[in-house]
Amino acid sequence: MTQNLIHRNRGLCFVLIILYVLVFCFPRRLSARNQPEEYTTNATQTIKVSNATRHDFSRLIDVQLGSHVSGVSELKRYLHRFGYVKDYGTDGSKNFSDVFDGHLQSAISLYQQNLGLPITGRLDTSTVTLMSSPRCGVSDTHMINNNSLHTTARYTYFGDEPKWNSDRLTYAFSKTHKLDYLTSDEVKAAFRRAFGHWASVIPVSFEEVEDYTTANLKIGFFVGDHDDELPFDGVLGTLAHAFAPKNGQVHFDAAETWVVNGDFGSKVAVDLESVATHEIGHLLGLGHSSHKLAVMYPTIRPRTKKVDLAVDDVAGILKLYGANPKLRLDSLTELKDSLNGGVSGRFLSGNVIGYALLVVLILLL
Ligand SMILES: [Zn+2]
Ligand SMILES: [Zn+2]
């Protein structure tokens, strides 16, 4: 009787494993279009600090189609900046009007789709709140037109799915573009942890080197316009941006109040490890995810720590690089933590099949 039960359970386990492999090894290929442009940066930074802080669109809540309200033009510029509006106006200029027109309604619907919100085309509170939140400066164009709504996968890639073809990547910090209110050791430790999140799931190691010019991945903190056509905008707003493989550049807005030790005393404090983990995802080839729990979701609230990779992040990066041989054990550790009431169960959140597989693996061990 006991033997029969074991055999039956093993059969069930086998079926679950096959299901898992089918879902994760052959996810729907998500379309992705525009890849950030390559560029060269000057050795000398042009400092133009914008007076703007974060975008605050709260006065636009419930503005109706057809109405003319001051601030709508700013919203159109915001949506244009992140890839939701191509050209505006008959002359293709960027002179946006304050009229809530049909183009804006379509752009709002697309934004809601990409950010995992109910698609209403209206400026409801949740949409406006998200648009007012700090976010990554990488455009969402690679998310647009993906047909993944009926699948569980929400991750995306850039253009032709560029990736690194090496199992060892070097990274270095700019010696000129750096923060003056955190120590070098504090910044380096935050990045070591951020790289570690990705290294624990893929067979790629990250090694810090001194030479910024020859490192694969180049990390710097910049203010305002820094010659890559993606100027930073002061406190909050856009926090950082990175470029797809094999560009290797990642820039952080030096105007932010970056914190490395969980000291969220300031209302505008932003956790460096969290944003670094997100940007490293871009450096490795991931685009934005519409899954709110994913590290690759475009926005993050101030005073928030979000460093644990979600199943969606892991599924996306595994498809590009394959799995780290230690991945299974790490996952099991996280599962045990979550079962014990720990806080590191995010890897499993929202994915029943992944959860079932790990339970099965525990039973087999
Ligand atoms: Zn991003
Ligand atoms: Zn930049």
UniProtKB/TrEMBL annotation:
The active site is at 279. Keywords: Calcium, Glycoprotein, GPI-anchor, Hydrolase, Lipoprotein, Membrane, Metal-binding, Metalloprotease, Protease, Signal, Transmembrane, Transmembrane helix, Zinc, Zymogen. One of its GO terms (biological process) is proteolysis. The chain crosses the membrane at residues 12-30, 347-364. It is found in: Cell membrane. It is a lipid-anchor; GPI-anchor. GO terms for molecular function: metal ion binding; metalloendopeptidase activity. The keyword rRNA-binding does not apply. Zn(2+) 1 binds at residues 226, 228, 241, 251. It holds the Pfam family PG_binding_1. Ca(2+) 1 binds at residue 256. One of its GO terms (cellular component) is side of membrane. Its cofactor is Zn(2+); Ca(2+). Binds 2 Zn(2+) ions per subunit. Can bind about 5 Ca(2+) ions per subunit. Ca(2+) 3 binds at residues 233-234, 253, 256. Residues 160-323 form the Peptidase metallopeptidase domain. Belongs to the peptidase M10A family. Matrix metalloproteinases (MMPs) subfamily. This is Peptidase metallopeptidase domain-containing protein.
